[in-house]
Amino acid sequence: MIRVVIGSRNKKKLKEMVALLGDLNLDLTDLTPYPDAPEVEETADTFVGNAALKATQLAPVLGAWVIGEDSGLCVPALGGAPGVYSARYAGTHGDDQANNDKLLREMAALTDADRSAYYVSTAVLSDPTGKVVASAEGRCHGTIVAERRGAGGFGYDPLFLVPEHGKTFGELAPEVKQQMSHRAKAFAELRPVLERLARGESLA
């Protein structure tokens, strides 16, 4: 069975990936089995650039197929912020509470259409030599509410309202989010390539 590593130590990302791709004949894991794996600096100014950095730098070191994934929230009225800085918007990487607090402050004076936002997820698949063989992007559009709603999800999920459900990602059941999220759409686009990999077909 071919191992495919998602280049992250975020257990919630791994959980979503397994939920979306776990039926394939692949050994899916994150970086947990690789404690010495390097931390890849996200120096690109685009999501696809950062995803490619993770995939191409980690694959040769691990000797495995790697999916580099980068995602974030974009608010057009804020010039696209937080964007690629979503995880460290308030300064400390992964501090969801501080990031949410900053976003609420930045958007305090915004109303109606100016509160529209979208999540982006870009996934890049690299072969074990570090060569990119596929990439995909998914988006999910919504609105930023004025205060947190729900305790589910992670990142900006308690603030991200999905209009067709009238609930935030923080309020929606995980299985509902997984059907429509930006990450679900990106992995769905990548899935045909992974199906070929699972069948042992060449991706050259």
From TrEMBL:
GN (gene name): rdgB
Keyword annotations: Hydrolase, Magnesium, Metal-binding, Nucleotide metabolism, Nucleotide-binding
Enzyme Commission number, as recorded: 3.6.1.66
Subunit details: Homodimer.
Protein name from the UniProt record: dITP/XTP pyrophosphatase
CDD domains: HAM1 (cd00515)
Co-factor note (free text): Binds 1 Mg(2+) ion per subunit.
Keyword Nucleotide-binding found: yes
Catalytic activity from the UniProt record: dITP + H2O = dIMP + diphosphate + H(+); ITP + H2O = IMP + diphosphate + H(+); XTP + H2O = XMP + diphosphate + H(+)
Location of the active site: D70
Gene3D superfamilies: 3.90.950.10
Positions annotated to bind Mg(2+): E41, D70
